[in-house]
Amino acid sequence: MARPDKATAVAELKSEFEGSAAAVLTEYRGLTVAQLKELRSSLGGNAKFAVAKNTLTKIAANQAGVNGLDDLLVGPTAVAFVKGDVVEAAKGLRDFAKANPLLVIKGGVLEGKTLNATEITKLADLESREVLLAKLAGALKAKQSAAAAMFAALPTQMAQLADALRAKREEAGE
Fold first, then answer.
1. What is the pTM of this model?
2. Computed over its alpha carbons, how large is the radius of gyration of the chain?
3. Burial 67-93 (b: 16+ CB within 10 A, else e)
4. Which of 25, 35, 110, 169 is 20 to 30 Å apart from 154, CA to CA?
């Protein structure tokens, strides 16, 4: 590869590292082109799966300020640059790796923190961002509904008390 081509490849990889919430490094040795295409489509819009040379990836990661990947850049390496939901992308990679044992998750980086393969699997076991947000919204709504019911009950009880007091005064002839 000529020098300008390498510089362009490094610039593209650096841009991907900088624009991604996470990057997951995988070994793809033995996978067919059709399987890689299937993996890319299974990741959808959440991640971009790119095969790159280790030396160029190492240079781009260092230029982007991503450290700790040097030990993982051994053998044929592909990088999944995650731009969307990190949990959903990790689930897609984990599920594809279960169906295709030739894909090996090596590790990665999430918001500057280096992750090993086990941590990425744990990340994949989490519920998606949307589910967690829905649970949080449901909990907040329940608390607000209880507070609204309590505040609505106070004027109602006050009105009932005033009505009872009025009826008692009428009874007493006041």
1. 0.68
2. 28
3. eebeebbeeebbbbbbebbbbbbbbbb
4. 169
